[in-house]
Input
Amino acid sequence: MSFPKYTELHDSGVAWLGTAPRHWRTGSLRWLSRRFSGGTPDKDNLDYWQNGTIPWLNSGAVNQTLITEPSTLITESALQNSSAKCTMAIWHYPVFTSGPSNGSPESRVMREAWQVLFDGGADLIVNGHDHLYERFAPQSPDGRRNDATGITQIIAGTGGAPLYQFSGSIANSVAQMRAYGLLKLTLQATSFDSVFLPVGGAAFDQYHGTCH
Output
């Protein structure tokens, strides 16, 4: 499988990243988000922190220009018992996609992370990689529709690289668009709203999710 390369690169100014597409920009998340706190696991409970493997970002991380490391690592027990009402995870490769990476080794290896998040009551996963927009109805790690405790997954790989084609529509795919644009998320204490804003077009796929 091969994909078109970015044609214009520049020095990103970040040592570990090197060159990056010329249209990429960096900025502080504090100007792009609102913060909620109070969901950090109990720091007096060592079972939540010792030998943790799950990356955890605290609310102060949004003051950083670049986030290259998690604030700390927590255990699965900490995730399951956190007082946070909503849990969102972001990473590159989607587990579920109607795009060209469907069934790829990278997508399969992230299914274990999906299971951990599902067991911990997570609500939303946001991915990139496939250059398209797609939203899936809440589902379990095995791909079955699950409106009660399932996770909503959104792919928004639409930042400027050549767009990919959809290869049909896999189970639970409820919205698809092949266009450049951005994903707008409004994260509330017990719910979230999402909408895709295509370049030069009307808002698409406005969605409201209630946290578990």
Q: What stands out?
A: The radius of gyration is 18 Å. Helices lie at 76-81, 105-109, 111-119. The first strand starts at residue 9 and ends at 11. The first helix runs from residue 76 to 81.
